[in-house]
Amino acid sequence: MSVDVRHKDKETRAGSTGVCLGENDLQRLLAYLAGAAKDVSRGEYRSAAEIFELTKSGKYPPDITELAEAFGMMMVMVEAREERLERLIGDLQEQKLVLENTSRALHQANIGVLEVLGSAIAKRDHGTSAHNYRVTLYALQIAAALGHAEEHVRSLVKGSFLHDVGKIGISDTILLKEGSLTGGEFETMKGHVRHGSDIIASYAWLGDCVDVVLYHHEKFDGSGYLSGLREGEIPLNARIFAVADVFDALTSARPYKTALSYEEAMDMMRKARGSHFDPEVVDGLCRVGDVLYREVYFADEDRLRHTLKQHIHELFKEDSDV
Q1: pTM metric for this prediction
Q2: 8 Å CB contact between 293 and 262
């Protein structure tokens, strides 16, 4: 008796939809939908079309058909969204590549601006870029001896190479004069640090080296120019460069002077320790000076350029990374 009731109840539920659906048919459909769900988890959506074909057969009740169709539509929508996402990822990868190429080009342009500006004034003032190469290499190694942070070393390199860029604004009559400058001429010459800072401040990539350009003629005891800064008021990069610049000037021949030997130059640097120069920076030069002098002073301009470019490539490689 109870078996008959259960059987009638099943027929009533199925019959209420107007469609007779056997348990095996329903189980097969549910098993198929479960398999389709696994396909979705693997990123496969071919089952959607088959689900729609099954629901067209008319053998399933409307509520079951509606459920199956909703599942099929979900698969179609998921597939469409995945395709849009793949296209978006592809577009982003293309944009990333463009950005990387642009960054590399900008990096090369920045380095080019640095070298062109520095070389232009160096050749006008000295007839060669060798001075710029030497002082930059000297400053680099002194900074290393002091344990200077790499981010500040990058600024130091820029400033060292461009330290005299403001001399572009000084007339040849004063800049190339072989004899001593008059008081008025010297005052005009002092203005090159201000001209230089004005030139590079307008170029964002060079903005962090203004301290070297503007303050490399300040002295540790406050007797330098233009601002009369003293001791720690002078930015460290400017203090480092001042030592490198004067050391190169002492050991280089000029139309109005002969070159001093390494020993003579170092003796003068030590005597100016605490007056013209930061004592700790002079001590840094003393630690590396002998080897550094032999490596840099006796190298020709091509060798100096090659060595400096290697340092610049290593220091500024992060600028081109995206």
Answers
A1: 0.70
A2: yes
Would you list the domain boundaries of the chain? 2-82, 104-320
CA dihedral 152, 154, 158, 160 (to 10 degrees): 60
Structure confidence by residue, pLDDT tens digits, 14-25: 433 444 455 676
Distance, in Å, from the CA atom of 119 to the CA atom of 262, rounded to the nearest integer, reads: 26
Quick check: 293 and 251 in contact, CB under 8 A?
yes
Give helix 301-316 / helix 62-126 axis angle, nearest 10°. 150
For the chain, where are the E strands, in sequence order? none
Tens of pLDDT along 77-105?
777 777 888 888 888 888 888 777 777 77
Residue 112 to residue 75: CA distance in whole angstroms: 55
Written in H, E and C, the secondary structure of 271-322 is: HCECCCECHHHHHHHHHHHHHHHHHHCCCCHHHHHHHHHHHHHHHHHHHHCC
- Give bridge partners of residue 273 from the DSSP assignment: 277
Would you say domain 104-320 falls under CATH 1.10.3210.10? yes
Residue 156 pLDDT > 50, yes or no? yes
- Residue 133 burial (CB < 10 Å; 0-12/13-18/19+)? buried
Half-sphere exposure of 200 (CA within 13 A, CB side): 33
- Is the separation of the CB atoms in 320 and 205 below 8 Å? no
